Each structure stands twice: as structure tokens, then as C-alpha cells.
Amino acid sequence: xxxxxxxxxxxxxxxxxxxxxxxxxxxxxxxxxxxxxxxxxxxxxxxxxxxxxxxxxxxxxxxxxxxxxxxxxxxxxxxxxxxxxxxxxxxxxxxxxxxxxxxxxxxxxxxxxxxxxxxxxxxxxxxxxxxxxxxxxxxxxxxxxxxxxxxxxxxxxxxxxxxxxxxxxxxxxxxxxxxxxxxxxxxxxxxxxxxxxxxxxxxxxxxxxxxxxxxxxxxxxxxxxxxxxxxxxxxxxxxxxxxxxxxxxxxxxxxxxxxxxxxxxxxxxxxxxxxxxxxxxxxxxxxxxxxxxxx
Length: 295
Hints:
By secondary structure, the chain is mostly beta strands. It has a single domain, classed as Jelly Rolls, CATH 2.60.120. It has four helices and 15 strands. Strands 1, 2, 4, 6, 11, 13, 14 and 15 form an eight-stranded antiparallel sheet that branches. Strands 3, 5, 7, 10 and 12 form a five-stranded antiparallel sheet that branches. About 25% of the residues are buried.
């Protein structure tokens, strides 16, 4: 292009006026389908506020339930018939944990959990703060079922009337107390006398119509069912199971169990004595457990 061949560059001035009205019309900020500010008013008629009782099992979390047994001792030749400590001092009682053969109930060594949550203490069930909160928030309660078969040694009198006591002991490290409210069996839920089931050889023989030549060929069955009062749970209460006999006898390891489970609160909606009467030791078969009320 020649240097003297200049082309004109023309700038055209444009002016457009924007008004509030035109902007609103163009971008439609009025939002045909929404309004501001948003409403936060809730009509309660649109909601059902009556929530059902929650279940820990529905959430896949159950820190309570478990089925516990006495394990086989691989170092022992006697894994079925386990000696029961006697109610009096005796050489029968001597073992590694009781070298002097002292009298009294001894803790059952529930060290094997077949299913569910293991025990939180050696042979004992612990009420942790988390368990207490979870149980109360779900309107459930904790039920123990303990049972075993028994057999006495024949010594002299083949019809010696041996007594057996299965009981629950509670350690209370944070709040030592008694619960003297009357429970399901007509006794304090947990008073000065521990919850217990009791039978004697003769009572069981009468019940089953035993006709043998010796009570040593009979296997009495003893069962204890207990519901913890949900208002009587304190941090780190520990429950143990104990057994004692009035004469040389054994419990059968394969029949001894402790089932711990969550159930719906049988006292829900009740008050006073009617509510307390749902907790504590539960009536079973009074012909076997002579301390159970006749229902």
C-alpha cells in the first residue's frame, strides 16, 4: 500500500440508555416461581411428631446382648462336671483360687461368648455410661437368664437333700446402694438379700417323680431370670453370677449359660408399685425354684 494512500477510520458513537425497567424486563429478576425472603414457617399438621421407640438392633449396634458360657479348659481332664463350692469350709472347695477351701458362693467363670457382646469385666457384665444412655433412650431394659443342671455326689446317704443356690451379685463402685422397691417376685429388686434361685434335691425329685436308688443319678435344673430396674442403673455397676451348694456336688459345664438381652420395657407407661413389680427377679417354676412365687 502506498504511503500516500490513506484510508479513513470512522468511529461511530453509539449510546444506549438502560433503565431499571428495561433491566428487570430483560433478566426477569422477579423470579416467576420463587419469592424472597423464603418462608420458614412450618405447619405442624404436616408432621407426625410421635416418634416410635428406637431399637439398638435396628441400627446394627447392640452393646448389651450376648450369650455366655464356661469354656473348656484344655489343661483339665474334668471339663463337664465342675465342682460347686460348699456353704461350709471343706477340702472339696480347694482349688487354685481357693487354696484354703473357704466356704461360700463362688463366681461362675463365664469367659466364653458364643455370640453378641463380650462381658466387659472378668466374668462380669458392666453397665458403662454408654450402655445406660442407650438403654434409656430406646425404652428397653436388660434381662438376664441364667441356668444350669446340677448333680450331687453320693456320700453315705443316697438321698441326702442337697440345696443349691444360684444368685446375682452386683458391685457398685460409683454408688453403693440398695433397691428395696418390691419387684416381680415379691421381694426387693436388689436388697440386702441378693436375687437368687434355690432348689433342693428332694423338691426336684418330687417334681419329676424320681424313683431311682440315689439322688446322685438325678440332675436338678435351676434357672434364674432377672430384669434390671432402668431407674437403678449407675455408671460401672458390675453384675456377676454365683453358685453354692449344701453338699458335694457339681454343675454341668455344657448346660451352664448366661444370656443377656435387651427387651421392651415391661414397666413402660406404669407408675409406682405396678411399675416396680415388672423388674427384679422374675417368677419361674416354683416347683423347681422354691423361692419363686406360685403363679
